[in-house]
């Protein structure tokens, strides 16, 4: 079996690393395609060094550009590589333009696509990432979703539950593994002269940093939080826009704000672990903070990681100055609130996501169910039906007994559940998809 990995940006390198480690451990043939969307040393190469990854087999070198141009160049180049390499499966991770390009290129070639971190939804179509996620999931053959909530998002979009694997998120694998290494090797605390508590800030989401009003509100909020020592590793997009909107200098001159270049993963994990609180609009950092028991303030109006909010470890504050400063003041002045946020349960698994994903791929491959083949039976789809189950029967037993029925969703006292094969159906309501064979 041959796996093609596609990555393009900082978080994809970090979240794919545990999978690359896992397949190297098992000696599975693979190629790594870097689109080159992130190209600065501190946005790309630094992570290869920190995570001890082999250099990519291909680097498309797409660089920065408009979404259309960037995606088109990546699609064209990825297509050529996939035709030459003929992998058995292509893996993409998350929601960047590399995921969009890779998903379309692979699915049009009928190469099965595995989407790592599938099923996330912010339901905000102004976010480029939301479009990328939805399109990727239309093209996907195997969905590796972090939580039951993300699995249900796909179920309600009509996707086949048998193609969905709830694995946790590989960020937990990356966090656990690398924090230990970082504790031994990172010099960041002495390099930055840190002795007391700090607050980490990251910011790069297009809807925040490309919008002058929002960026100004956030800048004013952090200027006002002058009792805190704020460490701000600044994303290149944010540097560009802070300068463009005339906000950079005031932040740079503020004594309580330490603006630094983006740091490597090991240094960043140490900064997070020394931090009292994190303020961010990053997706990955919302996940890492709940993994590391660090309260998170998310500078957004919605999140595709609602599990972190429900668990109590993350608060959405939007971008209004008063809401940001008041929320931070309240969390830091009320030890009960702070403690509750710290103790929120991590919804993203036990750090074995990479192992589960590779196990699932291998099983599907050796069961001969990976290939995308044209249908041979004339199956007609008869619709969705609601049914109350009276007998003692699991999802798998029900489907074995009723060959042309598929359990889509199970409702237990009004709550939707993912139809795990071992789930007991007695006294539950189920939605089924009904098919019939025409010949
Ligand atoms: C991209 C992803 C976003 C992800 C983020 C991770 C898309 C649509 N966006 O956003 O989902 O959360 O990566 O960090 O795929 N730049 C540099 N050097 C670099 C890379 C970028 O200077 O190495 C600057 C360029 O001016 C570029 C800007 O940053 O125009 C934005 O880069 P881009 O890759 O388009 O989007 P990100 O904001 O990084
Ligand atoms: N990160 C890092 N150095 C930094 C800032 C972030 O290593 O200076 C890591 C962080 O730990 C997380 C990932 O980058 O794993 C998140 O990337 P980003 O916020 O750019 O993208 P998103 O997750 O929002 O797509």
Major beta sheet, strand line-up: 3-2-1-4-5-6-7
Ligands: uridine-diphosphate-N-acetylglucosamine, uridine-5'-diphosphate
Helix content: 40-55%
Q: Count the strands? A: 17
User: Whole-Å distance between the termini?
Assistant: 35 Å
Radius of gyration: 23 Å
Shape: globular
Major sheet summary line: 7 strands, parallel
Question: How confident is the prediction overall: mean pLDDT?
Answer: 97
Name the CATH class of the largest domain: Alpha Beta
The total count of helices amounts to: 19
Q: Spans with pLDDT under 50 lasting ≥5 residues?
A: none
Structural class: alpha/beta
CATH architecture of the largest domain: 3-Layer(aba) Sandwich
Total number of distinct structural domains: 3
CATH superfamily of the largest domain: Glycogen Phosphorylase B
CATH fold descriptor of the largest domain: Rossmann fold
Strand content: 15-25%
Topology summary:
Blueprint: E1 2-7, H1 10-25, E2 29-34, H2 45-50, E3 58-59, H3 67-85, E4 89-93, H4 97-108, E5 113-116, H5 128-139, E6 142-145, H6 148-156, E7 164-166, H7 170-185, H8 188-191, E8 198-202, H9 206-209, H10 212-224, E9 230-233, H11 236-244, H12 248-253, E10 257-260, H13 265-273, E11 275-280, H14 283-291, E12 296-298, H15 306-311, E13 314-316, H16 321-333, H17 335-342, H18 353-366, E14 379-388, H19 395-401, E15 405-412, E16 415-417, E17 429-437
Helix pairs in contact: 1-7, 1-18, 3-4, 4-5, 7-13, 10-16
The structure holds uridine-diphosphate-N-acetylglucosamine (UD1) and uridine-5'-diphosphate (UDP).
Uridine-5'-diphosphate is lined by residues 10-11, 14, 202, 204, 233, 262-263, 265, 268, 282-285, 288.
């Amino acid at each position: 079996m041959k796996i093609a990995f596609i990555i393009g940006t900082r978080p994809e390198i970090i979240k794919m690393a545990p999978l690359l480690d896992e397949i190297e451990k098992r000696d599975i043939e693979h190629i790594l395609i870097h689109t080159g969307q992130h190209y600065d040393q501190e946005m790309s190469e630094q992570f290869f060094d920190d995570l001890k990854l082999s250099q990519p087999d291909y680097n498309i070198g797409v660089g920065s550009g408009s979404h259309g141009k960037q995606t088109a160049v990546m699609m064209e180049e990825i297509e050529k590589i996939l035709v030459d390499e003929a992998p058995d499966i292509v893996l993409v991770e998350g929601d960047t333009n590399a995921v969009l390009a890779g998903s379309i290129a692979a699915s049009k070639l009928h190469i099965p696509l595995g989407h790592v971190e599938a099923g996330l939804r912010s339901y905000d179509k102004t976010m480029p990432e939301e479009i990328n996620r939805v399109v990727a999931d239309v093209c996907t053959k195997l969905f590796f979703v972090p939580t039951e909530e993300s699995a249900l998002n796909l179920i309600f979009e009509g996707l086949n539950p048998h193609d969905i694997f709830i694995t946790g998120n590989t960020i937990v694998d990356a966090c656990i593994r690398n924090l230990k290494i970082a504790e031994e090797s990172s010099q960041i605390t002495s390099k930055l002269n840190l002795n007391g508590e700090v607050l980490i800030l990251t910011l790069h989401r297009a809807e925040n940093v490309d919008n002058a009003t929002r960026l100004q509100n956030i800048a004013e909020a952090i200027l006002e939080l002058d009792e805190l020592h704020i460490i701000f590793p600044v994303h290149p997009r944010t540097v560009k826009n802070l300068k463009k909107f005339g906000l950079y200098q005031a932040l740079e001159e503020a004594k309580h704000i330490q603006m630094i270049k983006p740091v490597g993963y090991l240094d960043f994990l140490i900064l997070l672990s020394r931090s009292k609180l994190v303020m961010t609009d990053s997706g990955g950092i919302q996940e890492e903070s709940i993994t590391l028991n660090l309260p998170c303030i998310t500078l957004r109006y919605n999140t595709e990681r609602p599990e972190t909010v429900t668990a109590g470890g993350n608060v959405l504050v939007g971008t209004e100055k008063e809401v940001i400063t008041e929320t931070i003041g309240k969390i830091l002045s009320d030890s009960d609130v702070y403690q509750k946020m710290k103790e929120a349960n991590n919804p993203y698994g036990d750090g074995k996501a990479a192992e589960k994903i590779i196990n699932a791929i291998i099983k599907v491959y050796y069961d001969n169910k990976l290939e995308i083949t044209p249908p041979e039976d004339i199956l007609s789809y008869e619709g969705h039906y609601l049914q109350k189950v009276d007998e003692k029967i699991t999802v798998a037993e029900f489907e074995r007994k009723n060959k042309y029925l598929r359990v889509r969703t199970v409702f237990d006292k009004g709550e939707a559940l993912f139809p795990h094969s071992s789930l007991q159906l007695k006294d539950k309501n189920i939605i089924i998809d009904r098919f019939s064979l025409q010949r």
